[in-house]
């Protein structure tokens, strides 16, 4: 099979990410230099996120708050054949370009990277391992794994459902009807702050409980109220 030229559009949903947005976007400047595209979609930040992001991306747009809404808005403007949905607190592995090229040359419609949490404690390595194994077995990916999908396929399935939570799982379910995910073993590094701030085991149990309730058909709006007990200030 011949190599298909790769053109990637990165879509970053952000909300009050002034503390880390420069580092996140600096990490993608090499991609921009090679002709790839970075789209930042702001959900109504009240800090300096927009001002800091503007010189470091190709497009800076606003949309209604909520990751699903923001990622759909960015995808609608994207010109790349491959869409990569990247959280502002996640960093791609060094071989990401090679891995995405391999994906483009494959028959799969979509995929994700393995993930590691940034914390140095052993428990974070264990959590990452279980996240990756679960994803490999079920075919379900999460946003922390930097999901990627062919743009025409994303349009075909209708993008993300406008859900306040579990939009990544809902999209995975629909994409599974087209193909299993292309699983990249190279790891995206995701900030472990929410685990450290809320408690590692408490966060782990909460996430498993919410996924279980979602699989049982509970309204994602109610689940979001549990996950975000206070007014949202971030898009995470």
TrEMBL record:
InterPro entries: Glyco_trans_2-like (IPR001173), Nucleotide-diphossugar_trans (IPR029044), Trfase_2_rSAM/seldom_assoc (IPR026461). Residues 9-147 form the Glycosyltransferase 2-like domain. It holds the Pfam family Glycos_transf_2. Keywords: Cell membrane, Glycosyltransferase, Membrane, Transferase. It is found in: Cell membrane. This is Glycosyltransferase. It comes from Marinobacter halodurans.
């Amino acid at each position: 099979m011949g190599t298909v030229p790769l053109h990637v559009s990165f879509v970053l949903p952000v909300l009050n990410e002034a503390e880390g947005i420069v580092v996140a976007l600096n990490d993608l400047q090499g991609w921009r230099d090679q002709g790839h595209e970075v789209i930042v979609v702001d959900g109504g930040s009240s800090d300096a996120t927009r001002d800091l992001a503007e010189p470091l991306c190709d497009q800076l747009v606003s949309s209604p708050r909520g990751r699903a809404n923001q990622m759909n808005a960015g995808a609608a403007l994207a010109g790349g054949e491959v869409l990569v949905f990247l959280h502002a607190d996640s960093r791609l592995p060094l071989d990401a370009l090679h891995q995405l090229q391999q994906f483009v040359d494959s028959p799969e419609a979509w995929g994700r990277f393995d993930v590691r949490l940034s914390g140095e404690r052993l428990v974070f390595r264990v959590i990452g391992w279980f996240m990756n194994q679960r994803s490999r077995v079920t075919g379900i990916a999460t946003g922390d794994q930097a999901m990627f999908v062919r743009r025409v396929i994303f349009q075909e399935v209708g993008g993300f459902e406008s859900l306040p939570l579990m939009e990544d799982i809902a999209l995975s379910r629909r994409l599974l009807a087209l193909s299993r995910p292309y699983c990249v073993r190279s790891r995206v590094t995701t900030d472990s702050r929410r685990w450290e701030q809320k408690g590692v085991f408490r966060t782990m149990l909460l996430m498993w409980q919410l996924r279980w309730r979602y699989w049982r058909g509970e309204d994602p709006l109610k689940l979001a109220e549990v996950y975000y007990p206070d007014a949202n200030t971030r898009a995470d």
